[in-house]
From TrEMBL:
Transposase IS801/IS1294 domain: residues covered: 3-45
InterPro entries, per the entry: Transposase_32
Protein name listed in UniProt: Transposase IS801/IS1294 domain-containing protein
Source organism (scientific name): Shewanella sairae
Length: 122
């Protein structure tokens, strides 16, 4: 079994019997009806936003801003297609609204009507 040793910051190998491996895994499973306290104090949902910046300031730590990529950026990096580029004219489309509960047939029918309105001249 391979594992990462955090003390030496290296990957190490360890040979365990099947029963020892199961025993180590089960040691992390709490007893039935055991109440887990995960976020308490400054990590609780109610106080995290208020107290964590103060804690970082006292510890003189800087917090890196996490930038989450948008849907369009992720799709463009994976599929190499810009989802906001019009397939008819090549122009840039803007997201204006989202409709929930509309059937796929209705959406496709609407797109066909739009495609018939504007034809790309070659």
């Amino acid at each position: 079994m391979g594992y990462h040793d955090h003390r030496s910051n290296r990957a190490k190998e360890l040979e365990l019997s099947q029963m020892e491996l199961i025993a180590r895994i089960l040691s992390h499973v709490p007893e039935k009806y055991f109440k887990m306290v995960r976020n308490y104090g400054f990590l609780s949902n109610r106080l995290r936003g208020l107290l964590l910046p103060i804690l970082y300031e006292k510890l003189k730590q800087t917090v890196k801003e996490v930038v989450t990529p948008s849907y369009a950026a992720m799709l463009k990096s994976y599929v190499k297609v810009d989802p906001y580029e019009c397939i008819l004219c090549g122009g840039r489309m803007m997201f204006s609204r989202f409709e929930s509960g509309v059937s796929l047939y209705t959406l496709v029918l609407g797109l066909r009507r739009l495609a018939k309105l504007k034809r790309v001249e070659a």
